[in-house]
Amino acid sequence: MSTRMGALVLFAACAAAVGHSPAAGEPQKDKEKDKKEKDKKEKGKPNKLAKSSSPYLLQHAHNPVEWYPWGPEALERAKKENKLIFLSIGYSACHWCHVMERESFSNPEVAKLLNANFVCIKVDREERPDVDDIYMTALHVTGEQGGWPLSMFLTPEGKPIFGATYFPPEDKKVGGDTVPGFKTVLAQVVAFDKDRADLVKQADRIAERTVEALEANGRVAVLVPLKRELVAAARDAFDIDPEHGGTGNKSRSFRGTKFPRPPVWGFLLSQAQKPGNDELKTKVALTLAKMLEGGIYDHIGGGFHRYSTERTWTVPHFEKMLYDNAQLVELYAEAHAADPRPEYKRVVAETLGFIRREMTSPESTFYSALDADSNEKEGEFYVWTAAEIKAVLGNDADATLFKAVYSVTAPNFEGKYHILRLPKALAAVAKEQKLTEADLLTKLEPLKKKLFDARATRERPFLDTKIIAAWNGQMIAGYAKAGQVFNEKAYTSAAASAADFVLTKMRDKDGRLLRIYAAAPGEKPAATGTAFLDDYAYVIHGLLNLYDATRDPKWRDAAKQLTDAAVKWYGDGVRGGFYFTATDSEKLFARAKDSYDGVQPSGNSQMARNLLRLGLATKDEAYRDRGIRTIKAFALALQSSPTSMPTMLRALDELLDAAGAPETSDPKDKPAQKNPKESADVVAPKLALDPAKGGTRAFTLTLTVTEPWHLYANPVGLESLADAQTEVTVYVGGKKVEAKLDYPKGQAATDDGTGKYRVYEKTVKITGTFPAADGEVEVRVKLTACKEGTCLLPSVLKVK
User: Fold this and answer.
1) Eight-class DSSP state of 566
2) One domain for residues 451 and 490
3) Per the record's keyword annotation, is Signal included, yes or no (predicted)?
């Protein structure tokens, strides 16, 4: 960044997410009707977002800012008028997004500055995660911390100049520094724009660094053997808070925000079940207990809030996301399968009760999110005063019991409110009350119902009703896993109904997934938007969980169909792994291969697990091979940043655990086996593929044969050995193609009993050409290895 632009101080970052809402009664419906009428009167002139189906964009549809949705119209206008672009990215449940909307985007003075000098584009990050990923990466490469709302200034061509998260409308004093307000920032950018050449140079530099960051996984192919050491190193690399559970920064005594990160705990839970990991098992159990006991869990209505703002899981950001709850249901169900505990079963049942009541559409699919705010105040819907609790419960003994159970002593939110939490395990609380745990739960049930009903009359957080394929896939997976573990048909049925909807209503005529199912104002809901890798990865995961729960082959077959589509449209046939966007998606200035397992697993990590599972379910080694190649593509990341891809590590661990798993290091690194059984045990293949030229592609297949073994040449020169001669076939996109092959002559050999023939020893190179076409190239070689008096079992090596 230029010195002047870098001098802009970035104020707060909204670190992601979304909120909540319970069952509605008639008084609440009347309040909502009144509010809609009031909003209607206060709304200004609609802008170009007014026809959107995105609830987030519709929240800005009456701003005085002349917003455009992301698309050709806005980008072409910027180029035509030679204006910089102001890009704002957020989502419907982001607290600081709402704050900036109220303070700045609804402000006529700010709107005037924006409209006169910029083309303004608003993006829902849940609709366009590809756009969000690129510009969030651009922010990160400049050394700034990310979050939402993401505010970026771009050249007319869409290259990032600089960015930030939330800006206050006016300058603010923070300590001895002045934090520039949004008006000041806009005025500075307008002034800097007088020297456009400098801004373009800066944008070019940032764009180049952004491309390097996003495409790193697609450019580098480092051979790292896939061994147990990778898994063990990662297992021991996580810093786990010994007092409150969760991961964090040990050097800071685990202070600061804590995210549940289900991918981490799914991996560590699986590791904890292995012999010798008792200490890890204790830490995993501690974390699961502290999360369900803390204020991050809604003890009245069920379900988890987004994350904790501090170490103890007490004070959350109050938004509730579908994807968090989906993954946590699956995690606690898996935990119960490994270590049956009543609290695990209870938290799954209560969370699914919340999902059924508040997040399930009439079509049996699942809504996206519940906001953190009510009446423009974060958390207002969920918190209590001691007086409110006493008033609702009435009976002093009931109020005393309830306050003791949920730690209603000193206020723990904004100095006057209580966020309900269990100060210790419910069994321990029951013991203090001289009750069994079951008796305590029975006593608490009617008290919680009274508070739930009272809470339901409050102003509700906004509900984002759009259906996202990816997140529905995760909820299908959670329901199916819970149905399997608890033998609960209602859970399995809910998963099946949602899966049927996604497969029938959220695919195009060619069977490809669509990202969003929603309705624009005055229109019927419809599925729109090319899916991303996450959509395929998570829906396939849900279908495979359904197959495991029901053994109905239709779910396995549907998973197979979607996997084949993902390989075709997103797969990297050269280096392995998958791109986030399809080959025919909108071309942005970079194409990423996502690799970080954050609060959700990356598409590549989830696909690696899917492929290995599908290989077992279908007995088709091609899926398993593709899964191994996906893991190999990210092996360097597993080695250099062991905590960054826990779901990929889980896939690797499952691969290594699988019975009869072949060597998973690169073939050329494969050591000669002391007691080889198959010909593949003594041969290492390597494929070199040339670019297409004149409609054909050329290749060289190098086979390295361990001494003293040899292969039979082609032609072998002896009819009795014809079945054993080396033969190469070529497949493109899974289909065999006609190839012109050039086999070397080989060395002459003679056997007194059979006659003269030819063999390949040490290193042999087979070349050939085949018609160029789209799809992954796979060369297969059938061979038999022999030495004096001994032949190994024949093998078919597949090299991609």
Assistant:
1) H
2) no
3) yes
